[in-house]
Write a structure and sequence with these properties.
About 45% of the residues lie in helices and about 15% in strands. By secondary structure, it is of the alpha/beta class. It folds into 2 domains: about 50 residues; about 180 residues. Strands 1, 2, 3, 4, 5, 6 and 7 form a 7-stranded mixed beta sheet that branches. A hairpin with a 5-residue loop joins strand 3 and strand 4. The chain is globular, with a radius of gyration of 19 Å. The mean pLDDT is about 90.
Length: about 240
């Protein structure tokens, strides 16, 4: 069991080629591929038992966020590069103008109290706008909470909560001193979600270009990477 745990954690953390894994663990590339998919599911279940996986169902978002001490949350989108699809339509759907590459993306909601990933959206093609993901999912937040977001979520205003986002500079004008100070305050808080995303992407499998093209594997590895970050951060927070 220890060898299997080392195998899958090493794969997620380092993300070497399967041929390299076969050499290191003295087996064949075919068996490495089979074990990767099997043990990924086992790792997901183990993190679920530890209650560190993020919520995935937007219908349960409000109830999930209401469980935690924090009433302040940050939402941000994160993209991951993938190999260029062969299908022309899929190429167009996954091409991200922001990254200038083919990507997939997720929305992540983090609480300010413990800086843990509380909600992870389903995985969408990189061309999908962040706000469109919110609109399609129909996010509902606990009444009275505070949500900080960036300009990518412009126009997303859930009911019964307070939202804050940086103010954009008007065309050919300058922001007032008050607006600049408010933007700096929001940026100093929103940097926490960048730290969480960086913690999630300590797993090279969600940092490097994803080579695995198995259906839904891109979504599974992101959920596991968030769970591993939450598990590590929870231990650090409790100690």
């Amino acid at each position: 069991m220890e060898d299997k745990l080392l195998f899958i954690l090493f794969y997620f953390k380092v993300y070497p080629l399967q041929e390299v894994m076969a050499f290191l663990f003295e087996t064949s590339q075919g068996r490495v591929n089979a074990w990767i998919h099997t043990l990924s599911m086992v790792l997901q279940m183990a993190l679920g038992e530890a209650q560190v996986l993020p919520q995935r169902d937007p219908k349960n978002l409000a109830r999930t966020l209401a469980w935690w001490v924090s009433v302040d949350f940050i939402m941000d989108g994160t993209e991951r590069r993938i190999q260029r699809p062969q299908d022309l339509t899929e190429q167009q759907e996954t091409y991200s103008g922001k990254k200038k590459d083919h990507t997939v993306k997720n929305n992540l909601i983090v609480d300010l109290e413990e800086c843990l990933g509380r909600y992870l959206s389903q995985t969408f093609a990189g061309r999908t706008h962040d706000k469109r993901i919110c609109d399609e999912a129909g996010y509902v937040f606990p009444p009275g909470c505070v949500l900080l977001k960036d300009t990518g979520f412009q126009g997303f205003e859930p009911e019964n909560i307070s939202t804050y986002q940086p103010k954009q500079k008007p065309r050919k004008q300058e922001l007032s001193a008050e607006d600049q100070a408010e933007n700096q305050m929001i940026a100093s808080i929103r940097i926490l979600v960048a730290h969480v995303i960086a913690g999630v992407k300590r797993c090279r499998i969600v940092h490097d270009v994803l080579r695995n093209t198995t259906a839904h594997f891109d979504d599974l590895v992101m959920e596991i990477a968030c769970g591993l970050h939450n598990f590590r951060a929870t231990l650090r927070y409790n100690t």
